[in-house]
Design brief:
This protein is an alpha+beta fold. It has one domain. It is 38% helix and 10% strand. The protein contains 17 helices and ten strands. Strands 2-5-9-6 form a four-stranded antiparallel beta sheet, sandwiched between helices. A two-stranded antiparallel sheet has the order 1-10. A hairpin with a 4-residue loop joins strand 3 and strand 4. It is globular, with a radius of gyration of 22 Å.
Protein backbone atom coordinates (compact mmCIF):
# COMPACT_ATOMS: atom_id res chain seq x y z
CA UNK A 1 0.00 0.00 0.00
CA UNK A 2 1.26 3.49 -0.82
CA UNK A 3 3.19 4.92 2.12
CA UNK A 4 1.73 8.36 1.42
CA UNK A 5 -1.88 7.21 1.77
CA UNK A 6 -3.75 9.21 4.39
CA UNK A 7 -5.12 6.84 6.99
CA UNK A 8 -8.00 8.02 9.11
CA UNK A 9 -7.78 7.49 12.83
CA UNK A 10 -10.50 5.37 14.36
CA UNK A 11 -12.15 6.56 17.56
CA UNK A 12 -10.61 4.85 20.53
CA UNK A 13 -7.01 4.04 21.21
CA UNK A 14 -4.47 6.45 19.69
CA UNK A 15 -1.02 5.69 18.37
CA UNK A 16 0.51 7.19 21.50
CA UNK A 17 -1.82 5.22 23.75
CA UNK A 18 -1.01 2.07 21.83
CA UNK A 19 2.72 2.55 22.28
CA UNK A 20 2.24 3.21 25.99
CA UNK A 21 0.21 0.04 26.30
CA UNK A 22 2.70 -1.91 24.26
CA UNK A 23 5.48 -0.70 26.51
CA UNK A 24 3.55 -1.72 29.58
CA UNK A 25 3.37 -5.29 28.38
CA UNK A 26 6.91 -5.45 27.14
CA UNK A 27 6.10 -5.05 23.46
CA UNK A 28 8.49 -2.18 22.83
CA UNK A 29 11.34 -4.62 22.48
CA UNK A 30 9.37 -6.51 19.89
CA UNK A 31 8.60 -3.29 18.05
CA UNK A 32 12.27 -2.36 18.05
CA UNK A 33 13.21 -5.75 16.65
CA UNK A 34 10.78 -5.10 13.80
CA UNK A 35 12.13 -1.65 12.95
CA UNK A 36 13.33 -2.73 9.52
CA UNK A 37 10.28 -4.78 8.56
CA UNK A 38 8.73 -3.14 5.49
CA UNK A 39 5.22 -3.87 6.74
CA UNK A 40 5.87 -1.53 9.67
CA UNK A 41 8.14 1.15 8.27
CA UNK A 42 6.80 1.72 4.75
CA UNK A 43 3.41 0.02 5.05
CA UNK A 44 4.07 -2.54 2.31
CA UNK A 45 2.65 -5.95 3.06
CA UNK A 46 5.17 -8.56 4.17
CA UNK A 47 4.55 -12.07 5.39
CA UNK A 48 6.81 -14.89 6.44
CA UNK A 49 5.32 -17.32 3.94
CA UNK A 50 6.40 -20.95 3.70
CA UNK A 51 5.42 -23.00 0.65
CA UNK A 52 4.75 -26.73 0.71
CA UNK A 53 5.20 -29.39 -1.95
CA UNK A 54 2.40 -31.54 -0.54
CA UNK A 55 -0.95 -30.90 1.12
CA UNK A 56 -0.02 -29.38 4.52
CA UNK A 57 -2.73 -31.03 6.64
CA UNK A 58 -2.32 -34.56 7.98
CA UNK A 59 -4.79 -37.21 6.80
CA UNK A 60 -5.40 -40.56 8.48
CA UNK A 61 -4.83 -43.91 6.81
CA UNK A 62 -8.58 -44.59 6.82
CA UNK A 63 -9.42 -41.24 5.21
CA UNK A 64 -12.48 -41.37 2.96
CA UNK A 65 -14.18 -38.86 0.72
CA UNK A 66 -17.01 -36.93 2.31
CA UNK A 67 -20.64 -37.64 1.44
CA UNK A 68 -22.58 -34.40 0.91
CA UNK A 69 -25.66 -36.05 2.42
CA UNK A 70 -24.04 -35.55 5.82
CA UNK A 71 -23.66 -31.77 5.53
CA UNK A 72 -25.86 -30.38 8.31
CA UNK A 73 -28.05 -28.42 5.88
CA UNK A 74 -28.79 -31.58 3.91
CA UNK A 75 -29.57 -33.46 7.10
CA UNK A 76 -32.48 -31.07 7.44
CA UNK A 77 -34.16 -33.04 4.66
CA UNK A 78 -33.75 -36.54 6.08
CA UNK A 79 -32.46 -36.53 9.68
CA UNK A 80 -35.23 -36.30 12.34
CA UNK A 81 -32.74 -34.66 14.70
CA UNK A 82 -32.08 -31.75 12.34
CA UNK A 83 -35.41 -31.42 10.51
CA UNK A 84 -37.10 -29.22 13.18
CA UNK A 85 -34.08 -26.91 13.25
CA UNK A 86 -34.07 -26.63 9.46
CA UNK A 87 -37.77 -25.82 9.27
CA UNK A 88 -37.43 -22.91 11.69
CA UNK A 89 -34.22 -21.64 10.13
CA UNK A 90 -35.60 -21.70 6.59
CA UNK A 91 -38.86 -20.00 7.57
CA UNK A 92 -36.97 -17.16 9.23
CA UNK A 93 -34.18 -16.86 6.70
CA UNK A 94 -36.54 -16.77 3.70
CA UNK A 95 -38.46 -13.90 5.32
CA UNK A 96 -41.64 -15.96 5.66
CA UNK A 97 -41.61 -15.00 9.32
CA UNK A 98 -41.24 -11.33 10.31
CA UNK A 99 -37.79 -10.36 11.65
CA UNK A 100 -37.30 -9.61 15.33
CA UNK A 101 -37.30 -5.84 14.78
CA UNK A 102 -34.21 -4.81 16.73
CA UNK A 103 -31.20 -3.23 14.96
CA UNK A 104 -29.79 -5.68 12.45
CA UNK A 105 -33.13 -7.51 12.29
CA UNK A 106 -35.47 -4.83 10.92
CA UNK A 107 -37.68 -5.14 7.86
CA UNK A 108 -35.11 -3.07 5.95
CA UNK A 109 -32.29 -5.38 7.02
CA UNK A 110 -34.35 -8.42 6.00
CA UNK A 111 -35.11 -6.86 2.61
CA UNK A 112 -31.41 -6.23 1.99
CA UNK A 113 -30.63 -9.81 2.91
CA UNK A 114 -33.18 -11.15 0.42
CA UNK A 115 -31.86 -8.81 -2.27
CA UNK A 116 -28.26 -9.90 -1.68
CA UNK A 117 -29.15 -13.57 -2.17
CA UNK A 118 -31.43 -12.90 -5.17
CA UNK A 119 -29.09 -13.85 -8.02
CA UNK A 120 -27.94 -16.98 -6.25
CA UNK A 121 -31.52 -18.00 -5.46
CA UNK A 122 -32.72 -17.30 -9.00
CA UNK A 123 -29.79 -18.53 -11.10
CA UNK A 124 -28.23 -21.31 -9.03
CA UNK A 125 -30.62 -22.17 -6.18
CA UNK A 126 -29.62 -25.82 -5.92
CA UNK A 127 -25.88 -25.19 -5.67
CA UNK A 128 -26.17 -24.45 -1.95
CA UNK A 129 -27.91 -27.82 -1.59
CA UNK A 130 -24.93 -29.55 -3.15
CA UNK A 131 -26.63 -30.32 -6.45
CA UNK A 132 -24.10 -29.82 -9.26
CA UNK A 133 -24.79 -28.37 -12.71
CA UNK A 134 -28.16 -26.95 -11.63
CA UNK A 135 -29.45 -23.58 -12.74
CA UNK A 136 -28.61 -21.41 -15.75
CA UNK A 137 -25.35 -20.05 -14.33
CA UNK A 138 -24.06 -23.39 -13.05
CA UNK A 139 -24.85 -25.64 -16.04
CA UNK A 140 -22.12 -28.01 -17.20
CA UNK A 141 -23.64 -29.15 -20.50
CA UNK A 142 -22.50 -26.02 -22.32
CA UNK A 143 -20.65 -26.60 -25.60
CA UNK A 144 -17.08 -25.38 -25.97
CA UNK A 145 -15.67 -23.49 -28.92
CA UNK A 146 -14.54 -25.81 -31.72
CA UNK A 147 -11.43 -23.64 -32.11
CA UNK A 148 -9.15 -24.74 -29.29
CA UNK A 149 -6.50 -22.22 -28.32
CA UNK A 150 -3.05 -23.71 -27.69
CA UNK A 151 -1.00 -22.21 -24.86
CA UNK A 152 2.79 -22.40 -24.99
CA UNK A 153 2.87 -24.24 -21.66
CA UNK A 154 0.84 -24.71 -18.42
CA UNK A 155 2.61 -21.73 -16.84
CA UNK A 156 1.38 -19.36 -19.55
CA UNK A 157 -2.10 -20.87 -19.31
CA UNK A 158 -2.17 -20.28 -15.56
CA UNK A 159 -1.04 -16.69 -15.93
CA UNK A 160 -3.74 -15.93 -18.49
CA UNK A 161 -6.51 -17.74 -16.62
CA UNK A 162 -5.65 -15.99 -13.35
CA UNK A 163 -5.63 -12.59 -15.03
CA UNK A 164 -8.99 -13.31 -16.61
CA UNK A 165 -10.45 -14.50 -13.29
CA UNK A 166 -9.35 -11.34 -11.50
CA UNK A 167 -10.75 -9.17 -14.29
CA UNK A 168 -14.04 -11.08 -14.16
CA UNK A 169 -14.47 -10.42 -10.45
CA UNK A 170 -12.26 -12.72 -8.39
CA UNK A 171 -10.72 -11.09 -5.31
CA UNK A 172 -8.15 -13.89 -5.12
CA UNK A 173 -7.47 -16.82 -7.42
CA UNK A 174 -5.28 -19.89 -7.06
CA UNK A 175 -4.84 -23.12 -8.98
CA UNK A 176 -4.39 -26.70 -7.84
CA UNK A 177 -4.21 -30.03 -9.60
CA UNK A 178 -7.36 -32.12 -9.68
CA UNK A 179 -7.44 -34.27 -6.53
CA UNK A 180 -10.33 -36.68 -6.17
CA UNK A 181 -9.94 -36.75 -2.38
CA UNK A 182 -11.75 -33.41 -2.12
CA UNK A 183 -14.59 -34.30 -4.47
CA UNK A 184 -17.73 -35.42 -2.63
CA UNK A 185 -18.26 -39.16 -2.87
CA UNK A 186 -21.96 -38.48 -3.51
CA UNK A 187 -24.31 -35.57 -3.89
CA UNK A 188 -27.75 -35.89 -2.37
CA UNK A 189 -30.96 -35.08 -4.19
CA UNK A 190 -33.29 -34.05 -1.34
CA UNK A 191 -36.26 -33.84 -3.65
CA UNK A 192 -35.99 -37.51 -4.59
CA UNK A 193 -34.13 -38.74 -1.47
CA UNK A 194 -31.32 -40.19 -3.58
CA UNK A 195 -27.55 -40.28 -3.13
CA UNK A 196 -25.79 -40.08 -6.48
CA UNK A 197 -22.04 -40.47 -7.14
CA UNK A 198 -20.35 -37.26 -8.26
CA UNK A 199 -19.22 -37.58 -11.87
CA UNK A 200 -17.79 -35.06 -14.31
CA UNK A 201 -18.70 -35.07 -18.02
CA UNK A 202 -14.97 -34.85 -18.80
CA UNK A 203 -11.67 -35.72 -17.12
CA UNK A 204 -10.61 -32.73 -14.99
CA UNK A 205 -6.93 -31.84 -14.86
CA UNK A 206 -6.94 -28.59 -12.90
CA UNK A 207 -9.09 -26.63 -10.46
CA UNK A 208 -9.31 -22.84 -10.44
CA UNK A 209 -10.20 -21.75 -6.90
CA UNK A 210 -11.71 -18.29 -6.49
CA UNK A 211 -12.10 -16.26 -3.31
CA UNK A 212 -14.56 -13.36 -3.15
CA UNK A 213 -14.14 -10.73 -0.45
CA UNK A 214 -17.22 -10.16 1.72
CA UNK A 215 -18.19 -6.62 2.67
CA UNK A 216 -16.34 -5.56 5.83
CA UNK A 217 -19.04 -3.22 7.13
CA UNK A 218 -21.70 -5.88 6.77
CA UNK A 219 -19.68 -8.71 8.30
CA UNK A 220 -18.76 -6.74 11.40
CA UNK A 221 -22.48 -6.48 12.34
CA UNK A 222 -22.51 -10.26 12.97
CA UNK A 223 -24.63 -12.14 13.74
CA UNK A 224 -27.25 -9.82 12.21
CA UNK A 225 -29.16 -10.04 8.94
CA UNK A 226 -26.73 -7.48 7.54
CA UNK A 227 -23.98 -10.05 8.02
CA UNK A 228 -26.18 -12.57 6.20
CA UNK A 229 -26.56 -10.04 3.39
CA UNK A 230 -22.78 -9.68 3.12
CA UNK A 231 -22.51 -13.45 2.75
CA UNK A 232 -25.44 -13.61 0.34
CA UNK A 233 -23.96 -10.93 -1.89
CA UNK A 234 -20.92 -13.11 -2.45
CA UNK A 235 -22.99 -16.27 -2.91
CA UNK A 236 -24.67 -14.40 -5.75
CA UNK A 237 -21.26 -13.32 -7.03
CA UNK A 238 -19.99 -16.90 -6.73
CA UNK A 239 -22.59 -17.88 -9.31
CA UNK A 240 -21.74 -15.02 -11.65
CA UNK A 241 -17.95 -15.03 -11.39
CA UNK A 242 -17.55 -18.81 -11.64
CA UNK A 243 -19.90 -18.81 -14.65
CA UNK A 244 -17.84 -16.12 -16.37
CA UNK A 245 -14.56 -17.95 -15.74
CA UNK A 246 -16.07 -21.19 -17.05
CA UNK A 247 -17.31 -19.31 -20.13
CA UNK A 248 -13.81 -17.91 -20.73
CA UNK A 249 -12.39 -21.44 -20.74
CA UNK A 250 -15.13 -22.76 -23.00
CA UNK A 251 -14.56 -19.94 -25.47
CA UNK A 252 -10.93 -21.07 -25.68
CA UNK A 253 -12.10 -24.58 -26.56
CA UNK A 254 -11.76 -26.24 -23.16
CA UNK A 255 -14.32 -27.92 -20.95
CA UNK A 256 -15.28 -26.41 -17.62
CA UNK A 257 -17.54 -27.18 -14.67
CA UNK A 258 -18.15 -24.32 -12.26
CA UNK A 259 -19.32 -24.95 -8.71
CA UNK A 260 -20.35 -23.14 -5.58
CA UNK A 261 -20.63 -25.24 -2.43
CA UNK A 262 -21.52 -28.27 -4.53
CA UNK A 263 -19.36 -31.01 -6.04
CA UNK A 264 -16.25 -30.66 -3.86
CA UNK A 265 -14.97 -29.31 -0.54
CA UNK A 266 -13.93 -25.71 -1.10
CA UNK A 267 -11.67 -25.20 1.94
CA UNK A 268 -9.10 -27.95 1.19
CA UNK A 269 -9.10 -26.91 -2.46
CA UNK A 270 -8.35 -23.32 -1.42
CA UNK A 271 -5.53 -24.57 0.83
CA UNK A 272 -4.14 -26.72 -1.99
CA UNK A 273 -4.31 -23.73 -4.35
CA UNK A 274 -2.24 -21.55 -2.01
CA UNK A 275 -4.98 -19.13 -1.01
CA UNK A 276 -4.58 -19.57 2.73
CA UNK A 277 -4.35 -21.78 5.80
CA UNK A 278 -6.58 -24.00 7.86
CA UNK A 279 -8.03 -22.34 10.98
CA UNK A 280 -9.75 -23.12 14.26
CA UNK A 281 -13.12 -21.96 12.87
CA UNK A 282 -12.87 -24.41 9.97
CA UNK A 283 -12.60 -21.73 7.30
CA UNK A 284 -9.58 -20.85 5.22
CA UNK A 285 -7.63 -17.82 6.48
CA UNK A 286 -6.26 -15.76 3.60
CA UNK A 287 -3.39 -13.30 3.95
CA UNK A 288 -5.39 -10.52 2.35
CA UNK A 289 -8.83 -10.81 3.98
CA UNK A 290 -8.52 -13.37 6.75
CA UNK A 291 -11.60 -15.63 6.70
CA UNK A 292 -13.79 -12.89 5.20
CA UNK A 293 -14.19 -14.62 1.82
CA UNK A 294 -16.54 -16.96 0.01
CA UNK A 295 -15.15 -19.67 -2.23
CA UNK A 296 -16.13 -21.10 -5.58
CA UNK A 297 -14.22 -23.21 -8.06
CA UNK A 298 -14.01 -24.21 -11.71
CA UNK A 299 -12.88 -27.67 -12.81
CA UNK A 300 -11.33 -27.82 -16.29
CA UNK A 301 -9.58 -30.18 -18.68
CA UNK A 302 -7.01 -27.46 -19.41
CA UNK A 303 -3.65 -28.34 -17.87
CA UNK A 304 -2.57 -25.46 -15.65
CA UNK A 305 0.51 -24.93 -13.51
CA UNK A 306 -0.56 -25.44 -9.91
CA UNK A 307 0.25 -23.07 -7.07
CA UNK A 308 1.80 -24.43 -3.89
CA UNK A 309 0.07 -24.54 -0.50
CA UNK A 310 1.33 -21.94 1.94
CA UNK A 311 1.57 -21.33 5.66
CA UNK A 312 2.15 -18.01 7.38
CA UNK A 313 1.60 -18.67 11.07
CA UNK A 314 -2.17 -19.13 11.25
CA UNK A 315 -2.11 -22.60 12.78
CA UNK A 316 0.24 -21.54 15.57
CA UNK A 317 -1.75 -18.37 16.18
CA UNK A 318 -5.04 -20.26 16.36
CA UNK A 319 -3.65 -22.48 19.10
CA UNK A 320 -3.56 -19.58 21.55
CA UNK A 321 -6.02 -16.98 20.22
CA UNK A 322 -9.47 -18.61 20.75
CA UNK A 323 -11.25 -15.36 19.88
CA UNK A 324 -13.59 -17.10 17.43
CA UNK A 325 -14.46 -19.71 20.06
CA UNK A 326 -15.03 -17.01 22.68
CA UNK A 327 -17.27 -15.09 20.27
CA UNK A 328 -19.32 -18.04 18.99
CA UNK A 329 -22.89 -17.63 20.34
CA UNK A 330 -23.61 -21.30 19.73
CA UNK A 331 -20.45 -22.49 21.50
CA UNK A 332 -19.78 -24.61 18.44
CA UNK A 333 -16.04 -24.01 17.95
CA UNK A 334 -13.47 -26.31 19.51
CA UNK A 335 -11.39 -24.97 22.38
CA UNK A 336 -8.79 -27.74 22.13
CA UNK A 337 -5.27 -26.38 21.95
CA UNK A 338 -4.16 -28.71 19.18
CA UNK A 339 -5.93 -29.90 16.03
CA UNK A 340 -6.80 -33.60 16.12
CA UNK A 341 -8.73 -36.34 14.35
CA UNK A 342 -11.64 -35.98 16.82
CA UNK A 343 -15.07 -35.20 15.39
CA UNK A 344 -18.39 -34.07 16.89
CA UNK A 345 -20.85 -35.78 14.57
CA UNK A 346 -21.37 -37.06 11.01
CA UNK A 347 -21.30 -33.51 9.65
CA UNK A 348 -17.54 -33.42 10.26
CA UNK A 349 -15.16 -34.90 7.70
CA UNK A 350 -13.39 -37.71 9.53
CA UNK A 351 -9.77 -38.54 8.79
CA UNK A 352 -8.48 -34.94 8.69
CA UNK A 353 -6.32 -33.57 11.50
CA UNK A 354 -7.97 -30.24 12.24
CA UNK A 355 -10.17 -28.33 14.65
CA UNK A 356 -13.75 -29.42 14.06
CA UNK A 357 -16.83 -27.23 14.43
CA UNK A 358 -19.96 -28.72 15.96
CA UNK A 359 -22.24 -28.14 12.97
CA UNK A 360 -25.34 -29.14 14.93
CA UNK A 361 -24.79 -26.41 17.53
CA UNK A 362 -23.89 -23.92 14.81
CA UNK A 363 -27.08 -24.65 12.85
CA UNK A 364 -29.20 -24.49 15.99
CA UNK A 365 -28.00 -20.93 16.54
CA UNK A 366 -28.80 -20.09 12.93
CA UNK A 367 -32.39 -21.16 13.59
CA UNK A 368 -32.56 -19.19 16.84
CA UNK A 369 -30.96 -16.18 15.17
CA UNK A 370 -33.12 -16.00 12.08
CA UNK A 371 -30.19 -15.55 9.72
CA UNK A 372 -26.85 -17.22 9.57
CA UNK A 373 -24.15 -15.94 11.94
CA UNK A 374 -20.59 -15.05 10.87
CA UNK A 375 -19.46 -14.18 14.40
CA UNK A 376 -16.31 -16.25 13.96
CA UNK A 377 -15.41 -14.32 10.82
CA UNK A 378 -16.17 -10.92 12.32
CA UNK A 379 -14.17 -11.60 15.47
CA UNK A 380 -11.04 -13.02 13.81
CA UNK A 381 -7.98 -10.74 14.22
CA UNK A 382 -6.99 -11.51 10.61
CA UNK A 383 -10.26 -9.94 9.40
CA UNK A 384 -9.36 -6.28 9.10
CA UNK A 385 -9.21 -3.53 6.54
CA UNK A 386 -5.75 -2.20 5.75
CA UNK A 387 -5.08 0.40 8.40
CA UNK A 388 -1.75 1.17 10.01
CA UNK A 389 -2.42 -0.57 13.30
CA UNK A 390 -3.61 -3.72 11.59
CA UNK A 391 -0.51 -3.82 9.42
CA UNK A 392 1.46 -3.62 12.64
CA UNK A 393 -0.63 -6.42 14.08
CA UNK A 394 -0.02 -8.55 11.01
CA UNK A 395 3.71 -7.93 11.30
CA UNK A 396 3.46 -9.17 14.90
CA UNK A 397 1.81 -12.32 13.56
CA UNK A 398 5.02 -13.27 11.76
CA UNK A 399 7.32 -12.81 14.76
CA UNK A 400 7.79 -14.44 18.18
CA UNK A 401 5.43 -11.70 19.43
CA UNK A 402 2.57 -13.46 17.60
CA UNK A 403 0.71 -14.04 20.86
CA UNK A 404 0.16 -10.26 21.13
CA UNK A 405 -2.00 -10.17 18.01
CA UNK A 406 -5.23 -10.91 19.82
CA UNK A 407 -4.28 -8.39 22.50
CA UNK A 408 -3.78 -5.72 19.83
CA UNK A 409 -7.08 -6.62 18.19
CA UNK A 410 -8.93 -6.31 21.50
CA UNK A 411 -7.06 -3.11 22.41
CA UNK A 412 -8.23 -1.40 19.23
CA UNK A 413 -11.80 -2.49 19.89
CA UNK A 414 -12.14 -4.81 16.90
CA UNK A 415 -14.01 -8.07 16.57
CA UNK A 416 -16.77 -7.44 19.13
CA UNK A 417 -19.88 -9.24 17.90
CA UNK A 418 -23.52 -8.56 18.71
CA UNK A 419 -23.07 -4.78 18.75
CA UNK A 420 -26.41 -3.27 17.64
CA UNK A 421 -24.83 0.14 17.13
CA UNK A 422 -22.83 -1.25 14.22
CA UNK A 423 -26.07 -2.25 12.51
CA UNK A 424 -27.48 1.24 13.08
CA UNK A 425 -24.30 2.86 11.76
CA UNK A 426 -24.32 0.62 8.67
CA UNK A 427 -27.24 2.60 7.22
CA UNK A 428 -25.57 5.96 7.87
CA UNK A 429 -22.60 5.35 5.56
Amino acid sequence: MDSEKNIKQKPGISRRSFLKTAGAIGAVGALASMANIPGVTDQKEVYAVTTHDTFPVELSEDFKRFDFKNVVFMRGFWDPKIQPIAQVQQAKFSNQMPPAGNPGYTEIDAALNQAAWAIHDSASPKSAYGIPAAGPLMAWDVPSNSRKYTFSDPEEASRIVKRAARFLGASLVGICDYDERWVYSHWYNPFEAQSIPVQFPFEPKSVIVIALEMNYEGIKTAPSLLESAAAGNEYSNMSGVSHKVATFLRQLGYKAANCGNDTALSVPLAIAAGLGEMSRMGMVITREYGPRVRLCKVFTDLELKADKPISFGVKEFCKSCLKCADSCPGEAISRDKEPSFDTYNISNHAGVKKWCVDAEKCYQFWADNGGDCGSCIASCPYNKIDEWHHKLSRAFAETPARSLLRYLDDAFGYGKVGNEQLAIDFWKK
